[in-house]
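Example record used in the benchmark description.
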Amino acid sequence: MRWIKGEMKKQIFMLLFCALVGGCSTTYDKKINTLYWPDVPETPRIKWVDYFRTIEDITLEKSFFSDRSEDLFSKPYGIAVTGDGRRICVTDLDQLVILYPEEKRYTIVKDDVAWPFGAAFTGSGKLYVTDMTAKEVRVFDESDKFVKAFGKGVGFSKPSGIAVDEPRNRVYVADAGAHTIHIFTMEGEYVSELGHGKGGDPGQFGFPSNIAVDDEGTVFVVDSMNFRVQVFSPEGEFLYLWGELGDTSGSFARPKGITLDSFGHVLVVDSAFQNVQVFEKTGQLLGWFSGGGNRQGYLQLPSTVAADDFGRIYVLQQIFPRVSVFQFLDEEYWDEHPEEKALAEARGHRFDFSPLTLPEGETPPAATTPSAPATEAPVAEEPVALQEEAPRPASPPGPGGEANLLIQMLEIRFGTLPTEYRERVNSADPQTLQKWGARILSAQQLEEVFSE
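Model output (structure tokens):
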């Protein structure tokens, strides 16, 4: 009885104490440093504006009784955002993490997913998610409640990226294992396949990973192991492609995520370069932003990217998992923020021409010429320059770089890599590394990746 009274006294004391200090949490001061791309003296086109890694980063509250920050994500891969930016979905190892930045809250969905991978929102706020374990697409309503699933009868191998074309009632699902893109109606009825199966010819795929669709219904596919982006018409006709394996701007090493921003730019994440390259829809390279590093605003093994209707760009990374938020800075932005423009000028940036035009007499780097003349991309009438001359992307690939990247991916998926497997990776040839890398998505145990 005395013990019960003692516990009651402690509880009453805690309630009174929390009331006295205004609650059991304090305001969390999130530090945001000003980072622009490109660097001085060029006109800033991209700015780092926010990030979400821990619960404190979204709630902006810190426990009064604990200094420990709890991570929001475990082993994430996919990201999607609504047009108004009010909901962000991150697909994690066995759950969906839905962030509500304006409301300073988040929700977790676990019961209706097994291994969620790709995600896409509709204009009305419905959420479509690929599930790697269930091998189907799962649909959630505007309140994050499960509605239905479809695609079970198609025979998915490794459903990964997903995109929704609401005006044309289409859902595109990348099947990395089957080297194809499956097309459904938004109600879940199977329509057809996009492309011509596995291979390196135009219209063929080598582990397609992610998809984006523009307002006209044009489909952009990251063809990961062919190191390129392929473009198709709304009717499924192959149009053109750009990209190749390389270590210079405009080429790719590990292309993964893709999206279109509100200005019509095509943004492609490369997990080896650890940056985001920005293209015109025609494939003209405009520049790149961010880079590798364990610093705010920089990226470590980025996987996917999304964009809202206000020029904000959301990039998900898998090492020290977090969502980094960037803002595209057009001429209108700088007109509306004269004080920030003055500070940028004081730092050495110049504003002697419009952020949406090139200096007189200059042209952007040309897109990679496709395999055949018939597949050339159309010429952009008014190309947009993010920077006059893009430097070499961070962390160029090579024999050692490919091995290190595979080790990072393995440790994200399975934990610390035993020495024997680390040695096998470091001594393997590039083709073997690619084969092992392709198995990571579906392997349930480490041994399955290295099985003969």
